[in-house]
């Protein structure tokens, strides 16, 4: 009997589950599904055990993680916002995963690229969205307007919808919203690893927004006023707004709408694209080989077609793989939704340069100066470019 006990104790290390502390940023309405998937993964196999914890929204979670990396207590697995991933790579705390993920299968190639930095994979995409032009469908019908298909049509619709107490469009001066317009015109905020703020497409993007604000066809809100931008739309103080696909489910989770919402693809030029936004799963430095394998196993489990379809329906993230679309036939019957989700074919990662964290504050200041203080677009962008180059890494 004593020999049998010793034999069993000898097997214990091999049979012990590999623990993976996991910090995620999924709030309602997707939080319950993600945590349910974690429980299902833990029950489906005995080799790994994820320990999930909600770490707050993207920026809050990023601050917590950097503090934990300095003082100890950081997780093994972290759900990182896309523009935060390059910083983790630059800091040397994100582990490369190219040798672990195997064949890409039917994942959209550009979706997988969202987890790459300089051609190497450091993140496993878990929730990616694309931009949408939301509009007040009741107001459009009352004015006999069709959903804008070009930026010229956006300007015309904004002019037609404005009134003494409302504006046709609400504009956010955050970098994501502005970059979406730039990419839709075929431009980029970064070129050859350097700031590209004075490129023709960037200038055109700001000039279009500036023109609408100056005519009082549009209202500008900065990042600190983000909640007011949403309220402007909900209270019919503005009739159009740009936001990710995931914005509508979040709004509907918290409130009901007094009007019908329309949604259209972002207007694009001939060479235009749209940016992915969202998050990837990152395995952090210090993880054991077994923990790395466990993280990849969970990602594979989470992105199985039926589970991903439920995730898409609840959150309006885009399906990352083509096989999930077969599970979404009813969901995609809505022609507006189908057109918006079809943008995955022209979606691209937008910020994979670690230096962007040094630059984007200058650009957001320029956007606010131009759209809220009336500084001409060219002048504001030239100042942002000059400031960005002044801190460019040597």
UniProtKB/TrEMBL annotation:
Keywords: Signal, Transport
Pfam families: SBP_bac_8
GO (cellular component) term, any one: cell envelope
Annotated localization: Cell envelope
Keyword flag Cell membrane: no
Family annotation (InterPro entries): Bact_solute-bd_prot1, SBP
Keyword Cell membrane: no
Record SUPFAM superfamilies: Periplasmic binding protein-like II
Chief location: other
Family: Belongs to the bacterial solute-binding protein 1 family.
Full protein name: Glycerol-3-phosphate ABC transporter substrate-binding protein
Organism the protein comes from: Thermus filiformis
Lineage: Bacteria, Thermotogati, Deinococcota, Deinococci, Thermales
């Amino acid at each position: 009997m004593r020999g049998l006990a010793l034999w069993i104790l000898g097997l214990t290390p091999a049979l012990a589950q590999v623990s993976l502390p996991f910090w995620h940023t999924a709030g309602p309405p997707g939080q319950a599904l993600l945590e349910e998937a974690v429980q299902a993964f833990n029950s489906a196999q005995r080799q790994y055990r994820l320990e999930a914890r909600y770490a707050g929204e993207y920026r809050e979670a990023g601050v917590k993680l950097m503090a934990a990396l300095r003082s100890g207590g950081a997780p093994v697995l972290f759900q990182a916002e896309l523009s935060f991933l390059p910083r983790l790579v630059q800091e040397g705390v994100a582990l490369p995963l190219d040798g672990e993920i195997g064949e890409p299968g039917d994942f959209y190639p550009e979706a997988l690229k969202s987890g790459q930095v300089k051609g190497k994979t450091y993140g496993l995409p878990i929730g990616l969205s694309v931009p949408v032009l939301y509009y007040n469908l009741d107001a459009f019908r009352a004015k006999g307007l069709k959903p804008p298909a070009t930026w010229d049509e956006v300007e015309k619709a904004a002019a037609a919808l404005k009134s003494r107490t409302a504006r046709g469009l609400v504009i956010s001066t955050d970098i994501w919203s502005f970059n979406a317009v730039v990419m839709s015109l075929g431009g980029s905020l970064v070129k050859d690893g350097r700031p590209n703020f004075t490129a023709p497409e960037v200038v055109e993007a700001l000039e279009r927004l500036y023109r609408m604000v100056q005519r009082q066809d549009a209202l500008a809100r900065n990042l600190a006023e983000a909640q007011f931008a949403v309220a402007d739309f909900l209270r019919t103080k503005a009739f159009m707004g740009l936001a990710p696909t995931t914005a509508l489910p979040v709004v509907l989770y918290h409130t009901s709408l007094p009007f019908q919402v329309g949604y259209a693809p972002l207007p694009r030029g001939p060479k235009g694209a749209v940016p992915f936004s969202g998050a990837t799963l990152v395995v952090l430095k210090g993880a054991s080989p077994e923990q790395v394998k466990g993280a990849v196993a969970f990602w594979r489990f989470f992105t199985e077609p039926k589970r991903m379809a439920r995730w898409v329906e609840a959150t309006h993230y885009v399906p990352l793989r083509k096989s999930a679309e077969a599970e979404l036939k009813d969901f995609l019957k809505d022609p507006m939704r189908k057109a918006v989700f079809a943008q995955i074919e022209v979606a691209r990662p937008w910020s994979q340069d670690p230096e962007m964290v040094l630059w984007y504050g200058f650009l957001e200041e320029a956007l606010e100066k131009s759209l809220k203080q009336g500084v001409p677009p060219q002048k504001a962008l030239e100042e942002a470019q000059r400031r960005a180059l002044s801190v460019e890494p040597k």
